[in-house]
Amino acid sequence: MTQVRDETPVLDVAGLSQRFAGGSGHFWAAKDVSFQVAPAEAVALVGESGSGKTTVAQAISGLQAPTSGTVHLAGQDVVRLARTRRGRRDLAGRLQMVFQDPYSSLDPTKPVFQLVEESLLLSGLSRPQRHERVAESLDIVGLDPVQHARRPRELSGGQRQRVGIARAIAPRPQLLVLDEPVASLDVSVQGQILQLLDDIRTRENVAMLVIAHDLGVVRAIADRTLVMYRGSLVEGGATPRVFAEPAHPNTQGLLWSATAHGQQAMPTAAKIALATDAAPLPLADTGCPFRARCWRRTAECDTDVARVETEAHWFACNHPISASEEVADRVDVTA
Amino acid sequence: MSTSLLEVSGLGVTYQTPTGPLAALDDVRFSIGAGESIGIVGESGSGKSTLALALLGLLPTNATTTGAVRLDGVNLLSLNRKELDRRRGKDLALVYQDALVSLNPVRTVGSQIAEVVRRHIPGTDRRAADETAIEALRRVGIPDPGRRARQYAHEFSGGMRQRAAIAMALAAGPRVLVADEVTTALDVTVKAQILDLLDDLRSTEGMSVISISHDLEAVRRITDHLAVMYAGRVVELGPTADVLSASTHPYTAALMDCAPTITRPVISFISGAPPKTAAATPACAFAARCIVSAGREACTLERPVLRPTKAHVTAACHFPLDGAAEPRHHDPIPVH
Ligand SMILES: Nc1ncnc2c1ncn2[C@@H]1O[C@H](COP(=O)(O)OP(=O)(O)OP(=O)(O)O)[C@@H](O)[C@H]1O
Ligand SMILES: Nc1ncnc2c1ncn2[C@@H]1O[C@H](COP(=O)(O)OP(=O)(O)OP(=O)(O)O)[C@@H](O)[C@H]1O
Ligand code: SF4
Ligand SMILES: [Mg+2]
Ligand SMILES: [Mg+2]
Is the torsion defined by CA of B21, B23, B27, B33 positive or negative? Predict the structure, then answer.
C-alpha cells in the first residue's frame, strides 16, 4: 500500500518531453511527463506498445537527454550528471537500469562475472570487495557459479535476464529502473525474481520503477501504477485503486483486455473504438491523446482535456468512468 | 497427432563449456503435422531455445547433436550447410527469442523483410518485394507500416521490434514456424492480433507452428498440443487443454499455480532450483523440488520415462497426479 511519505523523492520527473523524427514529421514519444517516486516505493509504468515507456526510462537513466523537462535523482539533475565521467559514476551508484532486450544490452565478448563486476568499477570498492559483491549478487538472482565463466550467448534467455538484474543490484542503487524485467522468464522464475525484487526493496530501501505489460505482475509488486498513452500519462494512483476503479477509458481498456473474461464482457462500443487505428498526433495537439480510440469522446476532447486530482488517484479525462458507474467485469480487488 | 510433417526423435544436444559438457537436451521426441501447432513450455534454462536452434541447424559450434529431426522424412541434421540454408526461411523459419538478433541495425526494417521475400520467392521484383514487406508489417499490427518500413530497428519500440522479427520470419511463407517467445512483452491487444494471425496462417496455408512460450494463456489459445520441458527433457506431453487444465506431472501442476493474475496478486514460485544438467543423475530431475514425491525413494533411484497418465497424455513421473479436471486456484497445490 502507498503511504504518503514526506521524504524527498528519490526520483522527481518534471515536464519530461522527448521528440523524435518519425518519417512523416516529428512526434512526442513523451509529452510533459511528471511524476515522483518515494524512497523504497515501487511504481509501475504501463501502457500499450509504443506508448513511450522505454523512452521515459532512458531519459530517467541519463541514456538519452530529453528534449525538455528535468529529471532529479535524490535532488541531483540527471541530465547534467550524465554529461561528465564523474557525474556518470555518481549516477551509476544511485540508479541502475535493467533493459528490455537482455541480449543486446550485454557485451557478448565478456563472461558473466566480468559483466557484473563492470557495474562496480566506478564504485570505489577494492577488487576483493568487488568480487565478493559480484558473487553475492549472482547468488541472489540464482545464477550458479558454473555459469559465471560463460558468455551471454551461452546462457538461456532467462539466465541472461538474471545477469542484467544482478548487474543492476550489485552497486546497491537507490533506484532501479526495470524495463520488462520478468517477461522472458517462466512463471515460476518470475515469481522468484519478483520476490527477490521485493526483498531487495525492503531490505536495502531501493525504490523501483517497473515497466511491464503483464498487469498481474504489476498488481503483485507495484504500490502505485501510472498509465501512459502515446507519450502522455493519463492516469495514476495506488495500484489497488487504479485496478478496481479505473477512471480513464484507456486504463479500463487495458484491464478488460487483460483477462479472457474481461475481453468478453467489454461493451461493443468500447471494443470497436479500442480497435481503431489511430493516426499520429501533430506536435501542437492539445486534445486528449486517447480520443481516436475512445468510446466516451465528445467534441471537447478534440481540444481540451480536464485533469482531476484526488488523494491517491488522478486522471486526465473529460468523461471519466466514475466509481459508482455500472462497468462490465470490474476487477474485484477485495480478494 | 496425424501424419507428421516434422518428426523429432531422440534429440540430444550437449554443449561444451569451460566447466565441462552440459547436456541441454536429452532424448526429446515429438511430431507435428501440417497445420498443427505444438507449444513448448518449461523452466527457464530447460532447453527450449536449444531445441529451436537444433531444429533449424543453427546451434553454435560448441554443441554436439544426436538423434534426428525429419522434415518430410529427410533428416535435417544430416544436411550440409548449403542445403540447410536453402530450406531455412522457406521450409522452416525461426523467430528468435531476442528480436534484435534477427534485425540488422544498419538497414531499414522494410528492406530486410523485402530481401527475405526476394531470396525465397524467385522472380519477385524490387517494388513488389517492398510492397510485400509493408503488407507483412501491417499484418503484425504495426501502425503506419509504409512509414515504419523506412525506419531502422533502433527507432522501433521493443514490442514493434518483436513484431518486425515475426513479419520477417513469415515473409517467405514458411511451412513450419518456430516461434521462440514471440509474444513476450507485447501488450494484450497486440498479442491477440499476433495469435490470430498465426491461427489464420495455420488454417488457410497449413503452416505448422512450434511455439515456445512462458505465456501459458497464449499457449492455451494457439496450440493444440503441448510439451512441458524440465531440465532438458519433455516431462509431459498431450493435448494442450488436457495438460494445462488438469496436469498429471507435478512440475506442470506447480508451474500452473505460479502465474500472478490481476485478481490474485500473490507472488508464488517453486522453491529450489533445477539440477545443472539433465543427463547426469539417475533420479527424476524434479525430485528435490517435488511436493508429490516428498522424498520417496523411487524418485531418486530411477529416472521416470514418459508413459500414459490419462487419455492422450503422457508424463515422466513415478507418482503422476490423477489429472482429473478441477477448478484451479480454489485448492492450489502449495508451491512453497
Ligand atoms: N530513437 C528513436 N527514433 C525515432 N523514434 C523512436 C526512437 N525511439 C523510440 N521511438 C518511437 O517512440 C515511440 C515510443 O517508443 P518506446 O520504445 O518508448 O515505446 P514503449 O512504450 O517502450 O513500447 P514497447 O512496449 O513496445 O517497448 C515509438 O513510436 C517508437 O517507434
Ligand atoms: N552456447 C551455449 N553454450 C553453453 N551452454 C549453453 C549455450 N546455450 C545455452 N546453454 C545452456 O543450455 C541450457 C539450456 O538453454 P536454453 O537457452 O535452451 O534454455 P531455455 O529453455 O530457452 O531457457 P529460457 O526460457 O530462459 O530462454 C542452459 O543451462 C544454458 O545456460
Ligand atoms: S478525455 Fe474524452 S477522449 Fe479522452 S479518454 Fe476522456 S472521454 Fe475519452
Ligand atoms: Mg519498451
Ligand atoms: Mg530460451
Answer: negative
The count of domains in chain B is 2
Q: Mean of the pLDDT values across residues A142-149?
A: 86
Q: Which of A187, A215, A333 sits opposite B214 (nearest CB)?
A: A187
Residue A157: nearest ligand to its CA? Answer: 2
- Does residue A218 have its Cβ closer than 6 Å to ligand 1? no
Say if residue B169's pLDDT is above 70. Answer: yes
- CB contact set of A3 (below 8 Å; sequence gap of 6+): none
- CB atoms near residue B63 (< 10 Å): 17
Q: Under an 8 A CB cutoff, do A189 and B217 touch?
A: no
**Closest Cα in chain A to B264:** A335
Ligand showing the shortest atom-to-Cα distance for residue A297: 3
Looking at the fold, whether B157 and B259 belong to one and the same domain comes out as no
Find the A260 Cα to ligand 1 centroid distance in Å. Answer: 28
Q: Are B214 and B161 in contact (CB under 8 A)?
A: no
Whether the CA torsion B54, B56, B62, B67 is positive or negative: it is: positive
Domain range for B304 is 4-91+174-334
Same domain, B148 and B206: no
Last residue of a domain, one of B113, B146, B173: B173
Enumerate residues 6+ apart whose C-beta is below 8 A from B294: none
pLDDT in tens, B302-330: 999 999 999 999 999 999 998 775 544 43
Q: Who lines ligand 2 at CB under 6 A?
A: A 153-159, 186; B 15, 17, 22, 24, 44-50, 60, 62, 97
> A-B interface: how many C-beta pairs under 8 angstroms?
175
Residues B30, B67: one domain? yes
Mean per-residue pLDDT for A260-268? 85
Assess whether B199 and B230 both reside in one domain: yes
Quick one: what percent of chain B has pLDDT higher than 90?
57
Closest in A188, A221, A280 to B270, CB measured: A188
Question: At B115, which CATH number?
Answer: 3.40.50.300
Among B173, B197, B225, identify where a domain stops: B173
* pTM score, whole prediction: 0.89
